[in-house]
């Protein structure tokens, strides 16, 4: 029996990179995984890898996590199939360069929507089920840019800073319901957003640990690789 045996875990941005690696890691620890993302072909690739490596069948839900109606539908479908949601990994992200002087309002909003509003929508949607079962583990992927900023990455940096504040607020609100909400900074990973960096699989043990924290574990805190 793995650390996540019988748990139901939702993963946004599950089609590639850290989302894909975490889906495999969660399933290997016994979880049933639900894969959310915009690109069905990539989600199906992840599901095939989950099946091949763990023998588990992942639930694929093509979802634009910036659209509230699609998020609501995904949560409804998940609950209809499994009757509970134990873990939410808010991993979906976009990183596009642009200084404040160069960014259009639309470009700014696109990054805010994916990197900050989507975690809010997904968290809001899973909270009723987690409160009912008096159990939930929510993990939000953050970045060092949330604190340091960087020229040319104003929107991404601001969104991640907002995500950290949002995480602490939710942790404070939901602790009494048995829901732990934490941040994880994996550092630079080799994904579609970065040509170089660590293999995402290297950091998944940390995420599994946060997803399987016992009652009374840390909440509202930042955890980092290494």
From TrEMBL:
<dbReference type="GO" id="GO:0008206">
    <property type="term" value="P:bile acid metabolic process"/>
</dbReference>
<dbReference type="InterPro" id="IPR020904">
    <property type="entry name" value="Sc_DH/Rdtase_CS"/>
</dbReference>
<dbReference type="InterPro" id="IPR057326">
    <property type="entry name" value="KR_dom"/>
</dbReference>
<protein>
    <submittedName>
        <fullName>Short-chain dehydrogenase</fullName>
    </submittedName>
</protein>
<dbReference type="InterPro" id="IPR002347">
    <property type="entry name" value="SDR_fam"/>
</dbReference>
<dbReference type="Pfam" id="PF00106">
    <property type="entry name" value="adh_short"/>
</dbReference>
<feature type="domain" description="Ketoreductase">
    <location>
        <begin position="7"/>
        <end position="192"/>
    </location>
</feature>
<dbReference type="GO" id="GO:0016491">
    <property type="term" value="F:oxidoreductase activity"/>
</dbReference>
<keyword id="KW-0560">Oxidoreductase</keyword>
<comment type="similarity">
    <text>Belongs to the short-chain dehydrogenases/reductases (SDR) family.</text>
</comment>
<dbReference type="InterPro" id="IPR036291">
    <property type="entry name" value="NAD(P)-bd_dom_sf"/>
</dbReference>
